[in-house]
Specification:
alpha+beta; 11-stranded mixed sheet; 5-stranded antiparallel sheet; 26 strands
Amino acid sequence: MAEAFSTPAPVPAPLPARRPRRLLRRWGVGLTILLGLLILAVVAGGLWFRSRMEASLPQLAGERAIAGLAAAVEVERDALGVPTVRAASREDAARALGFLHAQDRFFQMDLLRRSAAGELAEMVGSAVVESDREIRLHRFRHVAGRVVAQATPEDRAFLQAYTEGVNVGLSALGGKPFEYILLGVEPAPWRPEDSILAVFAMFIDLQDEDGSNESELGFLHDTLPREMYDFLSLPGTEWDAPLVGEPFAVPPVPGPEVFDLRKAGAARRLPKAARRVAPYAEPAWNEAVLGSNNWAVAGTHTAHGGALLANDMHLGIRVPNTWYRASIVRPDRAGGTLRLTGVTLPGTPSMVVGSNGHVAWGFTNTYGDWSDVILLEVDPRQPGTYRTPAGLKAFRTVTETIRVKGDGPVSLEVKETIWGPVIEPDHRGRPRAFAWTAHHPAAVNLGIQGMEAARTVDEAMAVANRSGIPAQNFVVADATGRIGWTVMGRIPRRVGFSGRIPTSWADGSHRWDGWLAPEEVPRVVDPPSGRIWTANARVVAGEALAKLGDGGYDLGARSRQIRDGLFALGKATPRDMLAVQLDDRALFLERWRKLLLDTLTPEAVAADPRRSELRRLVETTWTGRASVDSVAYRMVRSFRLNLAGQVFTSLTGQWDTPQEERFGPTRQFEGWLWRLVTERPVHLLDSKFRSWDEQLLSAVDETVDFFAERGKLADRTWGERNTTSFAHPLSAAVPFLGRWLDVPARALPGDENMPRFQGPSDGASERMVVSPGAEESGFFHMPVGQSGHPLSPYYLAGHEAWERGEPAPFLPGPAEHRLRLVPGG
């Protein structure tokens, strides 16, 4: 027993060793269970989200009761999701269209009204408060309410019908649109004034909403000698192709007695001012504008004897697209049947552009002058007042409250004058106000609705001149073969000044004196040439131009290429019109390519082997087009813009200004730049260069340096730069959504100074060619798709035809789904 007791007990070491393993096993089991639960939660969440997504898909077939309908409405959808609405009345059609807009595009509509009202922060949060602040200055929600209050009873009823249709369409969805689930907010009901706000959103997109164009010209005017200001602020160039008048001549180069960069202190540094920056090696800045092309060919010059109208409106391309296609069939006032086909703007009840079988019409942005910056005269002895023709007046202050999701409200005081809101002081510290047509209820109305019933060019022009929208070049063709142009939108009568630079209105000698009467608005009807064209450049001259003003017209190169393309045709066909729309010939850059090659002399090439490679590529890859495989096009384009940036920076004394704070030249800079590089005046050469050849080589090297940092020069094609990026608004905030929501990237041909206007995030938001009365022979393209729902088969339907420029029918195709909307509910 003693021996037994003396035997050492077993070492209990294994037990501690087993315990950690047991704990690890337990932890592992726990982690596995937790991971499994997480996976189940994610799967369940995904399935729930998917079910909510599916529930929010629009109703395509069956029957739906809608209160307020006077009679049943039939809605047919074709293979692209384009609806044909068959209604017994105009109001029933508006109610049905509101239903469809809400079902397919409510979040887009919500963004339109909120962006115009400065109410995005209420839905998105503090990240957009500053954006809301900028917009609240205009108090568009207040103006929209006044527009509705002052509308005719008929128009208010029309708006109300559309509004009720929108709210029924939203509530009829099985779940709220997915964007609201991701944002964690509820969609607010639609109101009649929201449709007016959607129109104001287009004012903001298409016009100078803060006076920056006029302010920048004011900087130049105040800083440079008058001759130099005139030279750098050209109203046009030899590229102009107006319907009326001749191209503007570029004035002579100011002599050294006016301005001499070779003398110390000659270049006066301009103040820090503008948002538009000078060019980089491949600039985000350029002279591109949001605009459009449109033209009409009279029946005397077409193959079928009827007039042809073509329109492609250039905008930033979003997901979903700006426009919503529709065809509306209803009785007309003569006892017959009216069929309207074209595009609508979600949030509004009217057909924007299209054809009614009698007339077809289209828009391009005018770039006339629809705003003015006013220098206020204040008396420091009487603070809070400013001088007016009627004597001193007190500023009016209004408090705007910005509601912010997840945070407290933000208050903003808006100071107003009799002319418009007070904006930031100018470069000299002078107080300023901003007058804009959009601030006036009289500038916005539902007059465009009258296009539904127009039967002739004359009737259509009368409707255009009474309508209140952001001022547009209105081109129309009718079924008898006639064509015409005018401006649709209200035009202020400017008295005593041109409006190009800020001035004082204190003594009344400079003012707006109401609106031009319809008969005063410039028109061109049935021109002898049988052709009308516009492309955001100047359209008229003389007194007519003085009425419209200059709000920053585009360079005329695109307009001229369209004009020449039309005159080159014999008897035009719809396919000829589409070919002009898709014309990507680089005619404008031909002379810049020659200049670049002339700059790359044997001596210049020998000094840097990279220049040799550049010359080889410019010689061998030039296709004469803005084609995706061309390195040459990209290099020539960048060379021109780099040179423009260098020369403008030196002429305006901005070399010491950080590049992001510089401002760039007007869209007409080609006129003075080409004159400088061809005449090469030494007194306007930056003093750091010994010759213009050296200046040109500096632009060459800047181009090469930029692209060399990104790899082989031979791989830097135009397609690499001109690759589409069409994104949903939420994909930028939640990057992983991009694969699901955004349009697949595609390299596309085209650029700004040619008919096929195309950039990475902007381009033709629609293309149409139509002959009124022969709509079945027309063509239509639209990027992205009809539906805003990513699970819809119509989310990207038709986009590929738009990318490729393949002919697609103007009219909707055979019905694939039928929905019947009936009175009740």
